[in-house]
Specification:
The chain is built from 20 helices and twelve strands. An eight-stranded mixed beta sheet has the order 1-11-12-8-7-2-3-6, with helices on both faces. It binds S-adenosylmethionine.
Length: 455
């Protein structure tokens, strides 16, 4: 039996298919019409229903007071915790997620009357031209028609005239949230697809269909905001939630020991998905230039072939905090994870034989699991005894080699002193990429929710 087989045998009794975890419940699909959660199409976001389901499980066994999400994204785990009266801390690196999170927190306290007044003024005025220039990146050039850019400029020029800061921010956020709709792009699986009307040279013709006018799209979005503001939670969110904008790989090291009752999170998957490409329009709008984008890509959890190792920088960070021993424990768990090193060994051989379409996949897998080992050890440290962990993540496969992230990370969890209670497996897994399917056949990969606790 190989190492992954042994790992599987060790955890087999704890792998449980949970029929309630349907794709509908787990994916963003369910958020498309949910008040507040429909404000930004962030496909990686938790559905609020999934979070509610997991919090119900949690509340049945402990009385949680403080929840942490180190990969907070748009903050679904945080806002649902606040709605139950719990404290919540989130760490998020991408300005897009952080802005969505800020919008949701502000929505709970902004003056609905002031919002409505500004919306009414906007509706009754002309704003088809302005001085604002969309701060394009190379990969966003030609994303909008000249008419769309002109309407966006007129809208942006009006924003400084909005006195209430929270209302002004929500109006700014509304523009960000419709950028994809009014552009010649579409976020499609792992990629940003380009419509042929953009005039960009494209390998394949693609027409995304009807593109609304900016004015119609943004007014429609603001109307949705206005409707949702009538269904608020009582203005406590901003006091209950703490948001740290930065990398959890650095920030978690500074959190106090045993300070959280629950960690609910979903890290990026080890699947080559590049958030900085998919969200290029929104990041440019947030003011990220080419240098900042490159920096962001390197700071995000390594999940693309462009990522370089952060190990030396993280070692220095832990040294500066006089926490070398914590870092050494992570290195030992990572170096001793045989299932992972078996995969790396196979992939290295394939790379040497020139069989990998991109040899950097090997470094990506190494970096991903090293960084995730660090996150798992920090989760174990900051959790209170009796605390619970839920992590949503997918397994992946490269060159026919399954990378059982659920088992590898659960092994790290045990090394860090956590108990692996169960790994819930979604009834429907994930197929191969078409490239892999041709060569290796279709075997589903597990999509999971890991359920761990601290004894
Ligand atoms: C799968 S998404 C989580 C979405 C979130 N559950 C929600 O409801 O919106 C993963 C998130 O991790 C963030 N991320 C990636 N690397 C990070 C890092 N080093 N520190 C903090 N956040 C990071 C990404 O920007 C992304 O928003």
């Amino acid at each position: 039996m190989d190492e992954r087989g042994r790992l599987h045998r060790r955890f087999a009794a704890r792998l449980e298919v949970n029929p309630l975890l349907t794709r509908q419940l787990v994916s963003f699909q369910a958020s498309k019409s949910a008040p507040f959660y429909r404000w930004l199409k962030y496909k990686e976001a938790f559905s609020p229903d999934l979070v509610e389901y997991l919090y119900d499980q949690l509340a049945a066994t402990i009385q949680p007071r403080h929840v942490l999400d180190p990969f907070a994204g748009t903050g679904t785990a945080l806002t649902r915790a606040c709605a139950r009266g719990w404290q919540a801390t989130g760490i998020e690196l991408m300005p897009v997620g952080a802005a969505a999170l800020r919008a949701r927190l502000l929505a709970d306290e902004v003056s609905a009357r002031e919002f409505e007044r500004e919306l009414d003024l906007l509706r009754r005025s002309e704003w088809e031209n302005g001085k604002f220039h969309f701060p394009h990146l190379r990969i966003t050039e030609r994303a909008f028609s000249p008419e769309t850019e002109a309407a966006l400029a007129g809208y942006m020029d009006r924003l400084p005239g909005i006195h209430d800061e929270a209302v002004r921010f929500l109006f700014w956020f509304a523009a960000m949230s419709v950028l994809e709709d009014v552009s010649f792009t579409r976020k499609d699986g792992q990629y940003l697809r380009w419509d042929q009307r953009s005039g960009r040279p494209l390998a394949q013709k693609f027409d995304k269909g009807f593109i609304p006018k900016f004015r119609d799209a943004v007014l429609q979005r603001l109307r949705e905001f206005s409707q949702d503001l009538t269904r608020r939670n009582g203005g406590h969110f901003a006091r209950q939630a703490r948001v740290m904008e930065g990398s959890c790989l650095l920030e978690m090291a500074r959190l106090e020991d045993a300070s959280f009752d629950c960690v609910l999170t979903s890290p990026p998957y080890c699947n080559r998905y590049d958030y900085t490409r998919t969200y290029a329009l929104e990041l440019a709008f947030c003011g990220c230039d080419e240098t900042r984008i490159r920096e962001l890509r390197q700071t995000l959890l390594s999940a693309t072939v462009e990522n370089k190792s952060k190990r030396a920088a993280l070692a220095a960070h832990y040294r500066s905090l006089k926490a070398e021993r914590r870092f050494d424990r992570v290195c030992a768990a990572y170096d001793g994870q045989r299932g992972l090193h078996e995969v790396l060994c196979h992939l290295n051989r394939a790379r040497e034989a020139g069989e990998l379409s991109n040899g950097h996949v090997v470094n990506m897998v190494e970096n991903y699991f090293f960084e995730m080992a660090l996150v798992v050890f920090e989760i174990a440290r900051v959790l209170k005894p009796g605390g619970r962990v839920f992590i949503v993540n997918d397994n992946v496969r490269y060159h026919g080699e399954e990378v059982p992230a659920d088992l590898i990370l659960s092994d790290f969890a045990e090394s860090a002193g956590l108990r692996v209670d169960r790994v819930w497996v979604l009834p429907r897994g994930k197929g191969n990429s078409s490239q892999q399917m041709g060569r290796w056949g279709r075997v589903e990969l597990r999509k999971c929710v890991y359920c761990w606790s601290k004894p």
